[in-house]
Automatic annotation (TrEMBL):
InterPro entries: DUF1707_SHOCT-like. Residues 3-54 form the DUF1707 domain. This is DUF1707 domain-containing protein. Pfam families: DUF1707 (PF08044). It comes from Kibdelosporangium banguiense. It comes from the Bacteria.
Length: 172
């Protein structure tokens, strides 16, 4: 009997692929091909061949939490750790401009009537897997042809916004 995959299992599989491309074990083309298959997979049997030669994703430290409720918080998180950012009637500003090629970060960005701004390097590959309900998600600039650090953003924006800028933060 084939066992169906959960969204979390697919997400963990994409983390393995992200780590493999960041380490130089697979190319961006191979990453794109495998990612498409992973996201379309319905069972574990379909998922396994895409990961068999890469090993498991390693989660070394817990998430960094940045929560702004009716306030504004500015942070420069560690690139190697997952970040959970939540803005409720407030603002969270994440400065990732110091990230270097090969580094990667996962951001879970949730906003309710709030704003989340993420500043990334010019050459960053930004992957937005999140959703918006009566809100807006915008990534300025394209990731096409970029080979810098990988920033993967998920989460839900409700009556708020998430914006990703490819520039140094000028004013906060």
């Amino acid at each position: 009997m084939a066992i169906r995959l959960s969204d979390e299992e697919r997400w963990e599989a994409t983390r393995v692929l992200d780590a493999a491309v960041a380490d130089g074990r697979i190319t961006w083309e191979e990453h794109a091909e495998r990612s498409a298959i992973v996201l379309a997979a319905r069972t574990r049997g379909q998922l396994w061949p895409q990961l068999a030669d890469l090993g498991p994703a390693v989660r070394s430290e817990p998430s960094q939490r940045v929560v702004a409720t009716v306030s504004k918080i500015i942070r420069t998180p560690e690139a190697s750790r997952e970040v959970y950012a939540r803005a409720t009637f407030g603002a969270v500003i994440l400065d990732l401009t110091g990230m270097r090629r090969g580094e990667q970060i996962k951001i879970v960005a949730d906003s309710f009537c709030g704003k989340i701004a993420v500043y990334v390097p010019q050459d960053a590959v930004v992957i937005d897997d999140g959703t918006a309900v009566l809100g807006k998600r915008k990534i300025f600039g394209s990731s096409q042809g970029m080979s810098g650090p990988v920033v993967r953003i998920s989460g839900r924006v409700t009556m708020g916004n998430l914006k990703v800028f490819r520039d140094e933060p000028h004013h906060w």
